[in-house]
Amino acid sequence: MRLEAKVALITGGTSGIGSATAILFAGEGAKVVITGRNAERGAQVVDEIVGNGGEALFIRSDVRIAKDCRNAVDKTLERFGKIDILFNNAGVFHPKSIPDCTEEEWDETIDSSLKGAFLMSKYTLPSMIAQGSGSIIHTSSGWGILGGDKAAAYCAAKGGLIVMAKAMAIDHGPDGIRVNCVCPGDVLTPMLPDDAAKRGMSWDDYAAGAAKRPLGRIGTADDIAKAVLYLASDDSSFVTGEALVVDGGGVAG
After folding, report:
1. Regarding the domain delimited by 7-187+220-246, which CATH topology (the fold level of the hierarchy) does it fall under?
2. Active site residues
3. Alpha carbon of residue 200 to chain centroid
4. How many CB atoms lie within 10 A of CB 165?
5. Strands 134-139 and 85-88, how do they pair?
6. CA 96 to CA 154: how far, in whole Å?
7. Cα–Cα dist 64/15, whole Å
8. Residues 175, 70, 66, CA angle at the centre, nearest 5°?
9. In whole angstroms, what is the distance from residue 143 CA to residue 99 CA?
10. Alpha-carbon distance 125 to 134, whole Å?
11. 183: part of which helix (H) or strand (E)?
C-alpha cells in the first residue's frame, strides 16, 4: 500500500473528486480526514471508508474562514498526531464573464479555491516543517492554464493556485515538502450538470462538447483521484512545483 501509516487531510472531501480521493487514499492505507460544509455527505464518506476497514474523520469546515481551517488542522493533529498529505480540493464555479460576475460570486470563487488553499497550507505547514516531510496538492484546472469561456473568476483562482504552488515548492523544498497541482478537465461530478443548467444547455449537448478531446470522453472522479495519489505518494518523490494536467488531452488539443 502506497500510503501506509500516512495521514491525509482533504478539503471538499464530501463529494466528487474529494470523496473519490479520500476513499482511494484509505484503500492505500492512509488515515483520512475530510472537510466540507455538508455533514450528511461527510458522514456517508466516512461510513464507506470505515465499512471497508479504514479509518476516517469528518470535520465540518468552511475553507473561506480562518478559524475553521485552523480547527480542521488542530483536530487532525489531535486525532492522528501528524499530517503527511494536504489536498486542497474545495472550490466552487460560477459560469460568468467579468461584466456578469457579481462581487459576491467573485469573492466566493476566489476565497473557496485560492484563499482556502492559502489558509489550509498556512496552518498545516508548521507541522510538516517540524517533521521534515509532506506533500501538498492543490486542485487547479486546465482552465487555470489556458482559460475558458464564462469562467473569469474560476480561471483567476485556478491560475493563481498553479503559481502559488510553484512559490511554495521553492520555499519549502528545503523543508522536505513537495507542493504540486492537479489540473482536471471536465469531470463527471455534481459540478458539471450544474454548470450545464446554469449555461442553459441540455445535458446531452453539454456532455457531447465536454467529450470533444483526444481521448473522446469526460473524465471520472477516479481518474483524478489516481493522479492525486501519485502526487501524494513517494512515486512522485522528485516532483514538485508542477501542474499535472489530467484532462484526456483537452489542453494538448
Report:
1. Rossmann fold (3.40.50)
2. 154
3. 27
4. 25
5. parallel
6. 9
7. 18
8. 110
9. 19
10. 8
11. strand 177-184
Q: What is the pLDDT of residues 97-116, one digit of tens each?
A: 999 999 999 999 999 999 99
CB distance 146 to 114 below 8 Å: no
d(CA 96, CA 100): 6
The 10s digit of each residue's pLDDT in 146-191 is 999 999 999 999 999 999 999 999 999 999 999 999 999 999 988 8
CB neighbour list of residue 237: distance below 8 Å, 6 or more residues apart:
178
**pTM for this structure?**
0.96
- Cell triple for 97: 464573464
Q: How many CB atoms lie within 10 A of CB 104?
A: 9
Per-residue pLDDT band for 204 (boundaries 50, 70, 90) equals confident
Q: Is 147 left (phi over 0), alpha (psi -120 to 50) or beta?
A: left
| pLDDT score recorded for residue 117 | 98
Mean pLDDT along residues 23-29: 98
* Residue 27, burial from CB neighbour count under 10 angstroms (0-12, 13-18, 19+): middle
